[in-house]
Amino acid sequence: MFAIDHAATALLVKQRYPSVPMVPLLVSVQAMELAWVGLNYLGIERTTTEATVRSVADIHLAYMPYSHSVGTAVGAAVLAWLIIEKGFGRAALGRAVGLGIVSHLILDLATHGHDIVLWPGWATPKLGLGLYDAAPFTAFIVELMYGILCWYVYRGGTGLFALISIGNLANLSFLSPAIPGAEHYLAGRPILAVTLIFVQILVTLVLVGVLARRNTRASTATWDLGRPIAPDRAS
Ligand SMILES: [Zn+2]
């Protein structure tokens, strides 16, 4: 899943755990991707491209067993939850961060080509519904609708809606071989692709964080008229 929609997932978690600050939620939903960026820069994980890149199907997440395996993602989520809730006594924060980390795995499994292993060192099975490979344009529609769903559930304002819409539209050329775009320059330059994704992660996390704080739809005003915000069920 693209950066904007992972970032939008923090809105869902925030809605479920309103007392938890936005920053740890934003970091948690992209923790796997930030690990992937670092491990690619270190040469531990590897990305490759076709000789010509016309869509995301031509960029291959060739080796990423540490940042993107079912075992490491679930393990990191459980570990974060245990340390924060049992170690520091912050139940809502621990559960929200654990949920944020594992959300990334679920969303990637729903969109990626078959590139997610169960555990580092296990070559098969490789999981992923394969939307990016088989039906990139369907992936675009699914991601856009998911991003808007996050906005709707959060009751975000116009700025947040614009960000999620534009953030998804900006990826359209990546998801349609028929639409030319900047992806063409990534052929043979996998580290440039990693850097582009890293920049997208940072920009979308900051913008979602800022706009989630400042823009809420008028309907949320009812909270200010006496309807109390539901306390976190975990705290
Ligand atoms: Zn990912």
Describe the structure.
The chain is mainly alpha-helical. Helix content is 60%, strand content 4%. It has eleven helices and two strands; from the N terminus they run αααββαααααααα. It has helices at 3-16, 22-29, 31-41, 70-87, 91-111, 131-134, 136-154, 158-169, 172-175, 190-214, 221-224, and strands spanning 46-49, 59-63. It is globular. 42% of the residues are buried. The structure holds zinc ion (ZN). Zinc ion (ZN) binds at residues 32-33, 68, 104, 108.
Summary of the model, kept short:
By secondary structure, the protein is mainly alpha-helical.
- Roughly what is the average pLDDT, rounded to an integer? 90
Strand content: under 5%
**Percent of residues in helices:** 55-70%
The N- and C-terminal alpha carbons lie at a distance of 31 Å
- Distinct ligand kinds: zinc ion
Q: How many beta-strand elements? A: 2
Which term fits the overall shape?
globular
Low-confidence parts: 218-228
| Secondary structure tally, helices | 11
**Rg from C-alpha positions?**
18 Å
The main pleated sheet reads as: 2 strands, antiparallel
How do the helices and strands follow one another from N- to C-terminus?
HHHEEHHHHHHHH
SS-based class: mainly alpha
**Strand arrangement across the biggest beta sheet:** 1-2
